[in-house]
Amino acid sequence: MAEAEFTATGVGIARRLRSLTRAGRVRISGGRLELLTSLGSEIDSAPVGAVRTSRPWLGPDGRVRADLNGTRYLLALGDHDPLPGEPGPPAAHRFIEAVREATGRGG
Fold first, then answer.
1. For residues 96 and 105, is the Cβ–Cβ distance under 8 A?
2. Which carries the bigger pLDDT value, residue 91 or residue 19?
3. What domains lie within the chain, and their CATH numbers?
4. Alpha helices per DSSP H over 62-103
């Protein structure tokens, strides 16, 4: 399994219709995907191989569905990468690629 490192800040994280944080963090490290609040408290985590990601059919760009431990989360990442030196989360497609690379399914 390939080892991928990925960190995104300023990510909105919701479960069902409830927003858990509007400025959370998503991190892939050590073969695990972690969803964290802005203060670093863990919302949920799972081995990357058990995580499923997809883009919702409807809704704005920059949204990703992530299934961890049987719970579906909606992540609000960026619809484009921020300019160099500018704050903001990376594009949603970069997150999906990072998950695929970490599981060895990417290309």
1. no
2. 19
3. 6-103 (2.30.29.30)
4. 92-103
